[in-house]
Amino acid sequence: MAEHDVHGDALAFDLTVRPWIPVLRCDGRVDELSLGDVFAQAGDLRRIVGDVPTQEFALVRLLLAIAHDALDGPEDTDAWSELWGNPACFVPVGGYLEAHRGRFDLLHDQVPFFQTAGLRTAKDEVFSLNRIVADVPNGEPFFSARLPDVERLSFAEAARWVVHAHAYDTSGIKTGVVGDARAKQGKVYPLGVGWAGCLGGVFVEGATLRETLLLNLVAADSDPDPADGGGDDVPAWRLPACGPGGTERAPTGVRDLYTWQTRRLRLCCDADGVHGVVLGYGDPLSPRNRHPLEPMSAWRRSLAQERKLGTVPVYLPREHDPERAAWRGIASLVAGQALPVDGAEPAAYLRPGILEWVARLVTERELEGGFMVRARLIGPVYGTQQSVIDDIVDDQVAMAVVLLHRQDRRFAEQAVAAVADADAAVNAVADLATNLARAAGSDGEGPRATARHSAYGLLEGPYRTWLARLAEADDPYVRRTAWQSEVHRIAGGLGDRLMAEAGDAAWQGRTVAVKKGTEWLNTALAGKWFRAALHRALGRPGTDAVDTAPDAAPETPAEAPA
Whole-angstrom Cα distance, residue 214 to residue 204? Predict the structure, then answer.
């Protein structure tokens, strides 16, 4: 099959029928499908597999925009339930794509997909494809897939990177395009990253792509605040084609946000593929207080922005921390607060609207409490004034949806408390490492950091397994007690190893300053404090209660040299 279609003298690449989206089938095979085939075969597909994780997130949002528009909803949970129970729920998407296929032609001469026809710079420059391929950031590439330059892309690859550029393109000074009033002396100064790059991206995965799309298909009546942009919520291909420059407007809903045109670009190609790109800034969009419309991110209250703007509350996206595994932030997923009622103090954090939607489904019994999902966390880590992508966060937490139940909070509370148990144990191990280093007469910062890293690494797998099976218990408190015993065992074993490796100097010890004066600190005393800390935080192995006796230790780690 040819790489492209030819209509008269013009090239064409119809994304509705040409393969371009990489998928993982349920039988383990990797394939490439067209938009039409992705929806037709969604029940047999495991998930989208992008060239990089952020590409997967951007493509899922594209598919959701199509599904929302083709199905015109769902309006409420009843409409959603009908879709969930109907294996052929995506059949209407085929006719929808046929009706709009002209706007899904990547190479269309007038309205190329997600591009601006005729886009050019004053000098008619054509730039390297490195500008849109995220695994070759300008500067120092951090993936080895394409080194040192991207000279040519197939049309299928280029289509994926076009979608990704609107979602995640870096900031920085860009060459001005003809017709962009923001250009000064041929340059447009930084206007921020692509819209999805502002978010701490979160979506919910089911067992198949069909389940994933439906679980993230938020009902229209879930929006607590009507769209502030006015007008109908429509995706980019149902709006007039973008000209050069940007448009100052507010988004009208998720279909608009999922396809927001943050860039103006044009692919430069020939019959063999794409060899260059023209790229400029498009429609700017501030992330401030977009939580009523944008469901695929957690949000944090910004006191600094409130003071600056003189308004309360102000929420900004809660971006991912690459140093913190997703399981350690389970509270932001299952225990986020809803918007406050009038007169109440605004919540410090809001959990993602996607998870609020799944919480509604389980609370209204559209989903059984034991139904398993994965919360996927995907987001870039920008560096150097957001002009390059330094890293990409891709993590997940498997859980039963009962953890999201709005009324029955027992399971969520124990899941969050179990992370606190792990944190307490890690702190005890870190204090031990510091005290052993002090007893040996050396600096404790390096050993402390290493011990924390090791402890979290040992606890991560057991916690994920424990969380995935939490809903199997009638009483989550019993499972929490079992978890505390497991944490005690793991942390205790690591502590024993640290003491065994401490060396003769630590065993002999030395006099160190503590809050009550001085103490002869050696491995034996450091170990005594360590065991006391574990007992206070987790209870003693074989008991049900946490030991909070004041005489558990003669001196707590907080009073010790740590």
Answer: 10
Please tell me whether residue 228 adopts helix, strand or coil conformation.
coil
The series of mean pLDDT values per 10 residues for the chain, 562 residues long, is 57 97 97 98 97 96 98 95 97 98 96 97 95 66 54 96 97 94 93 96 98 97 57 92 91 97 97 96 96 96 95 96 93 71 79 95 95 96 92 95 92 95 97 95 91 97 96 92 97 97 93 86 96 94 50 40 40
End-to-end CA distance of the chain: 68
pTM listed for this prediction: 0.90
Q: How far is 437 from 506, CA to CA, in rounded Å?
A: 7
Q: Are 354 and 216 in contact (CB under 8 A)?
A: yes
Structure tokens at 243: 């000209």
Instruction: Fill in the DSSP letter of residue 6.
Output: E
Element (H, E) at 340: none
Indicate left, alpha or beta for 21 from its phi (over 0: left) and psi (-120 to 50: alpha): beta
Residues in the chain: 562
Q: What domains can you pick out in the chain, each with its CATH number?
A: 5-188+217-276 (no CATH), 410-538 (1.10.132.100)
| Whole-angstrom distance, CA of residue 169 vs CA of residue 262 | 8
Cα angle 374, 376, 381; round to 5:
160
What 8-state DSSP symbol labels residue 229? T
Which residue, chain included where needed, has tokens 């994304």?
Answer: 15
Paired tokens of 85: 């129970």
Amino acid at 330: I
